[in-house]
Design goal:
- The structure is a single chain.
- This protein has about 475 residues and is mainly α.
- About 80% of the residues lie in helices and about 0% in strands.
- The protein is built from 20 helices and no strands.
- It has helices at about 5-45, 45-65, 70-75, 85-115, 125-135, 135-140, 145-150, 155-180, 185-205, 215-250, 255-265, 270-285, 295-330, 335-355, 360-365, 365-380, 385-390, 395-415, 420-445, 455-480.
- Helix 10 (about 215-250) runs parallel beside helix 16, helix 12 runs antiparallel to helix 13 and helix 12 runs parallel beside helix 14 (about 335-355).
- The protein is globular, with a radius of gyration of 22 Å.
- Residues about 1-15 have low confidence and may be disordered.
Length: about 475
């Protein structure tokens, strides 16, 4: 089926191009900050501290996800999303949710600390750390609705700044704290700094009416109707994304969990690329086609290809270069993170297959489908336990990948036609990625100890360069055609 592109469609594509560029700029800056801070903190702290930081991160990330309850997608997707009454109602709900989440965190601190300290007594620190870290939810509740208006209008220059500036302040606080007092409180302090700076900037750059409490009955009903499924979906997304660390917190020591979390931080680079592009660029563009499902799916299919090229290239680069990366930039305590990252590249790719198409149900105003897919992922995570018992940590990771594939198959079954085309797209990219990466990864592993370090580094660069260059070329070609 051929679709004619009108002037509105051309403007939408131009916005998507600019949005993609801003997204990549913001993502690149964010990863530079993340890499730099991680390298510094790895030298200031110790593996056990990173294990505790991983558990704290589970709850910090969860609180950031729960504090939205669908407010952002509702403002972007709803036709009343720019009306003052709608925005004030949304802000009121957001504040109330932030308060409730902080109180819930305080109540959960003791049982959570008791659960994890059964395996490692160091986890008893969570009793105090979680209530303090929970303040990020309270702070985040006061974030201006202007953040979502900027997204709706695709003013992604300021959206990018709203992520990079708070992150820069957070990194400065974490490193400064760890330099003076090398303990896990550095992460908590950095999270609080991020939240405070973002709240201040969100109100300063709000392009809409000033935020203040208010209530509109009709707007509240629409927000709850849309948001209930987004909230439930967010809940199971949190479990699907972080259940690995919750489970491994009981299976591994804090030191082993710390090494795993460091490997995961860098292996998830491709996930951040695809999720960022899908949420910030693809979703607002698809929302404009919500009245024409067939055109929407066709647009998603075309926009998904460059996301898969870029993400697949990043997965291949890490699968091939992770041992060299961690062996060179980290000390001997973290060398095993290279091997872990290679296995995690497989999990990452299966996650990309899902995140590059899960905006379609939201754009169609059907968040229940996304909730069901995320619930399926969370439930299928039980496959990781027999995998761990059979093969150790690699088997656990394979179980996580299988859970993502189950969600991907379900989402394909819900598409309004053209599901076979998207399934074929996923299969071809997956087979191509495996055919190139797996033989080279095995070969590099064989020669790693048989050749000089510089020779090994040259071989890794030669193997990693083609997919990276091809991914960049394909993505740039797609951008130029738009």
């Amino acid at each position: 089926m051929v679709f004619k592109i009108n002037d509105e469609g051309m403007r939408g594509k131009d916005q998507a191009v600019r949005g993609s560029l801003w997204t990549l700029i913001g993502y690149g800056g964010s990863q530079v900050l993340r890499l730099g801070s991680n390298l510094v903190l790895a030298r200031l702290l110790f593996p056990e501290a990173f294990g505790l930081m991983a558990l704290v991160n589970v709850f910090l990330h969860g609180l950031q996800m729960f504090s939205d309850v669908g407010i952002g997608p509702s403002i972007i997707q709803n036709k009343r999303g720019q009306e003052p009454a709608f925005l004030r109602t949304a802000w009121t709900i957001q504040i109330g949710r932030g308060v409730m989440l902080w109180l819930a965190t305080c109540a959960l601190a003791l049982p959570v600390a008791a659960f994890f300290s059964a395996n490692d007594p160091m986890a008893e620190m969570l009793t105090v750390m979680l209530p303090v870290a929970g303040l990020t939810a309270l702070i985040g509740g006061f974030t201006s609705t202007g953040v979502f208006l900027l997204n709706r209008k695709m003013a992604l220059g300021r959206v990018t700044a709203l992520e990079l500036i708070p992150q820069l302040c957070s990194v400065a606080v974490m490193i400064g704290w760890a330099w003076v007092t090398p303990d896990v409180w550095a992460l908590v302090a950095g999270g609080l700094a991020f939240g405070l700076v973002k709240v201040l900037l969100s109100h300063l750059w709000n392009p809409g009416p000033g935020d203040r409490p208010g209530w509109d009955k009709e707007a509240g009903a629409e927000l709850f109707r849309f948001g209930k499924w987004v909230f439930l979906s967010t809940l199971v997304t949190f479990l699907a994304s972080h259940l690995d660390k919750l489970m491994l917190g009981r299976l591994l020591t804090m030191a082993e969990l710390g090494v795993y979390s460091i490997g995961l931080t860098f292996a998830r680079v491709a996930i951040h690329v695809s999720s960022r592009l899908s949420s910030v660029v693809i979703f607002p563009l698809l929302s404009r086609l919500q009245d024409d499902p067939l055109r929407l799916v066709a647009a998603c299919l075309k926009a998904r290809a460059p996301v898969l090229w870029l993400s697949g290239a990043v997965c291949a680069v890490f699968a091939l270069g992770a041992p060299l990366f961690f062996g060179t930039l980290y000390d001997s305590r973290y060398v095993e993170a290279g091997r872990i990252s290679q296995w995690l590249a497989l999990f990452t790719w299966t996650h990309v297959l899902v995140s590059s198409m899960d905006r379609v149900p939201l754009a169609l105003g059907k968040p229940k489908i996304l909730f069901t897919a995320n619930l399926l992922t969370a439930c299928a995570m039980v496959l990781a336990l027999p995998g761990y018992l059979a093969l150790g940590l690699p088997g656990f990771i394979l179980g996580m990948a299988a859970a993502n594939l189950a969600a991907h198959i379900f989402l394909l079954s819900t598409l309004p036609e053209q599901n076979t085309v998207m399934a074929r797209q996923s299969a071809l990219f997956t087979l191509g990625l495996l055919a190139y990466t797996l033989p080279l990864a095995l070969l590099l592993d064989q020669v790693r100890t048989a050749v000089p370090v510089l020779t090994y580094a040259l071989l890794v660069c030669c193997a990693a360069a083609p997919p990276l260059l091809l991914g960049a070329w394909k993505a740039w070609g797609a951008i130029r055609k738009r």
